[in-house]
C-alpha cells in the first residue's frame, strides 16, 4: 500500500478521536461575606466586620489579574485568615475556596507583605500628650501603678529549622528554632510596638537595647515608663521587679508591678490563640515568617474582635 494512503488513513482515525477536557472546578466561588455572621466566625475565627476591615486595607494593593478566573480581594483575605487562624493544611483551605494549594501559599505571602507595609499606620506608640495620659490612666486603674505607658516582654515563635549558615543562632534556650519577638502593649492589650527581626538565641535585654524605642525613651519622647520583667535592666524609663523585697512597701511595689505588667502576658496568650500558626509554629521560609508575624495588625485595629 502506498505510504501516502497509510498517512491519510491515520489522519482520518485521529479525527475520529474525541478530546475530553477536564471540567473547570475552580470556575464558581461563593463570596464568603454572604455567609451569616455565625457561619463566618465558625469558618474564619473572626467576625465578618473584621474581615471587611482587612479587605478595605489591602484591596488597593492586591493585584487583580483579569486572566482566567481571578481571585477577588475578599477570597484572598479569607484564605489567608483561615490559614493563619486555624493553622490547617493549605490543601484544606484550597478545597474550601475552590483554588489550588500553590495559590493559597502565594496568597498568604502576598497578604502578609501588604499588611507589613501598612503596619506603621496602626502599630504605633501614643504620641500626643492626651493619648499618653489616657494610656497612663488605664494602666493605673489596674493596680494603682503610676505613669505606666506600656508593658514590654518577648515571646518565642517557633520556625522551621534553618539549615543555612548561622542557622544554629535561631536555636533558643529551650532547644528549638525560633524568632524572639519583642512586643509593647497597652492596658487594652493593643500592641503599640513590635520587633520581629531577632533570632531565637538573642536575649530580651539585647533586643531592647538595640531597638529604636529605647532611643525614643532616652530622647524624652514619652512622659511615662515601661514595665518589664527581671530580664531587663532597671532604668529611669523601664521599671523591673525587686528581686529580694524586704519591706512592706517593696512587697506592695512588686505586687502592683506584676499585676500591671501581666497585660503583656495576656496579650501573648490571646494573640497565639487567635492565630494558631503562632502557637504551633510557622514553617515557611524565615523572611515570610517575619512578615506574617505582623498579623498583630488584628490587635491594632480592634483588640476585642
From TrEMBL:
Cellular localisation: Cytoplasm; Nucleus
GO cellular component, one term: nucleus
GO molecular function: hydrolase activity; metal ion binding; nuclease activity
Pfam families named in the record: DDE_Tnp_4
Domain DDE Tnp4: 152-282
Ion transport recorded as keyword: no
Keyword Nuclease: yes
Cofactor(s) in the UniProt record: a divalent metal cation
This protein's UniProt keywords: Cytoplasm, Hydrolase, Metal-binding, Nuclease, Nucleus
Function: Transposase-derived protein that may have nuclease activity. Does not have transposase activity.
Family of this protein: Belongs to the HARBI1 family.
UniProt protein name: Putative nuclease HARBI1
Organism from which the protein derives: Parnassius mnemosyne
Amino acid at each position: 500500500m502506498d505510504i501516502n494512503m497509510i498517512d491519510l488513513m491515520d489522519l482520518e482515525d485521529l479525527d475520529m478521536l474525541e478530546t475530553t477536557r477536564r471540567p473547570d472546578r475552580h470556575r464558581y466561588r461563593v463570596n464568603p461575606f454572604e455567609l451569616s455572621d455565625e457561619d463566618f466566625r465558625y469558618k474564619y475565627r473572626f467576625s465578618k466586620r473584621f474581615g471587611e476591615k482587612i479587605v478595605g486595607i489591602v484591596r488597593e494593593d492586591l493585584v487583580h489579574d483579569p486572566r482566567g478566573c481571578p481571585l477577588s480581594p475578599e477570597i484572598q483575605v479569607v484564605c489567608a485568615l483561615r490559614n493563619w487562624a486555624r493553622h490547617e493544611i493549605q490543601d484544606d483551605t484550597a478545597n474550601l475556596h475552590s483554588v489550588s494549594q500553590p495559590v493559597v501559599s502565594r496568597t498568604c505571602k502576598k497578604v502578609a507583605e501588604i499588611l507589613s507595609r501598612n503596619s506603621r499606620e496602626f502599630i504605633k506608640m501614643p504620641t500626643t500628650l492626651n493619648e499618653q495620659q489616657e494610656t497612663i490612666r488605664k494602666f493605673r486603674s489596674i493596680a494603682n501603678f503610676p505613669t505606666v505607658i506600656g508593658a514590654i516582654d518577648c515571646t518565642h515563635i517557633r520556625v522551621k529549622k534553618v539549615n543555612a549558615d548561622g542557622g544554629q543562632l535561631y536555636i533558643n534556650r529551650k532547644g528549638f528554632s525560633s524568632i524572639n519577638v519583642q512586643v509593647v502593649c497597652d492596658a487594652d492589650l493593643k500592641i503599640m510596638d513590635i520587633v520581629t527581626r531577632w533570632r531565637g538565641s538573642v536575649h530580651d535585654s539585647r533586643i531592647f537595647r538595640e531597638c529604636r524605642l529605647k532611643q525614643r525613651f532616652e530622647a524624652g519622647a514619652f512622659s511615662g515608663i515601661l514595665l518589664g520583667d527581671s530580664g531587663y535592666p532597671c532604668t529611669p524609663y523601664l521599671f523591673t521587679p525587686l528581686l529580694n523585697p524586704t519591706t512592706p512597701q517593696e512587697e506592695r511595689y512588686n505586687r502592683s508591678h506584676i499585676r500591671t505588667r501581666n497585660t503583656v502576658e495576656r496579650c501573648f496568650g490571646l494573640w497565639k490563640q487567635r492565630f494558631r500558626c503562632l502557637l504551633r509554629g510557622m514553617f515557611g521560609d524565615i523572611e515570610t515568617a517575619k512578615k506574617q508575624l505582623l498579623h498583630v495588625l488584628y490587635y491594632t485595629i480592634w483588640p476585642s474582635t
